[in-house]
Amino acid sequence: MEGKQIVETLADRVREYCRALGTPWTYALHRNPYAVAGFLWGLPVPIVAVALVQWAAGKPLTLGDCCGRLFSHPVMLVLAAHPLIFAILFGAFGTIRERKERHIQGLMAQLEVLAQVDGLTGLVNQHHFYRLLPEMASAGAHRGEIASIVMIDLDGLKALNDSHGHAQGDEVLRHVGMLIRKHVRQGDVAARTGGDEFAVFMPRTKPEEAAALVERLRAEIAATPCPKASGEGTLSVSVSMGVADVPAPAASTQEILARADKALYRAKAEGRNRVVTA
């Protein structure tokens, strides 16, 4: 089995190399340092060969005589082609490396995105949101803009998990995350900040404007049943929200969230499924 794997790996490398030979980047001497290195590696072959032939024939080593000698015989032409042959052979390795680097860069970009996004809801994750929040708040404060922060809490998720299972709880979180993404405007930053908690930063938005916007979100969540994880039937879902302006200057994430968090607790205490402005 090990021998078969070695043969298959070798065959894959040969196919990869052949594909590289058909790529224009292989022949781009101005972009591909491997091709340049190959050309320089092969350059001594015709020079040394012509010098030895001229010396053996007792001929002068002038440029004209050497060039004439290169084109005087098919064997000499093959030797003269060595720099280009080596440039192509080396250039293919440069193409393979360039492809791998592009692939690695693409993977790193994907990992960077994944590190910033909550895998369940598709919203910004807590760590990235808490890191961004003071920066976004400070930037708006320096421009003299009013921004709002909205805290959102799913009503009764623990009881739902206990009665229907965590798979259904995850389905509810996905459902609510999808509706939040649908309602946030360009420039708003929505995040999942805890197990059943969400937050939305709304730049250039007064609290009363933010409350009107998220009231439509609250109403749609309440009016849109969540499919059951089993695929049979639906469940009603509701959220409570607290809205506050972003204090300026704000030294920390906790200071930015504090008033909206208090408004959220009021919404829960007053019966849930409502929006309360600080």
Per DSSP, the total helix count is: 11
Beta-strand percentage range: 5-15%
**Which sequence of SSEs, written as H and E, runs from N to C?**
HHHHHHHEHHEEHEEEHE
The proportion of residues forming helix, as a percent range, comes to 55-70%
Q: Find the count of extended strands (DSSP E, 2+ residues).
A: 7
| Main β-sheet, spatial strand arrangement | 2-3-1-6-7
| pLDDT < 50 stretches | none
Main beta sheet, described? 5 strands, mixed
The rounded distance between the terminal residues' Cα atoms is 69 Å
Describe this structure in words.
It is a single chain. With 278 residues, the chain is an alpha+beta fold. It contains eleven helices and seven strands. The protein has helices at residues 2-21, 33-42, 44-56, 63-70, 74-80, 82-116, 126-142, 157-164, 166-183, 207-223, 253-269, and strands at residues 148-154, 189-192, 197-202, 226-227, 234-235, 239-245, 275-277. Strand 4 and strand 5 form a beta hairpin. The longest helix has 35 residues, at 82-116. The relative contact order is 0.10. The model has no long low-confidence stretch (mean pLDDT 87).
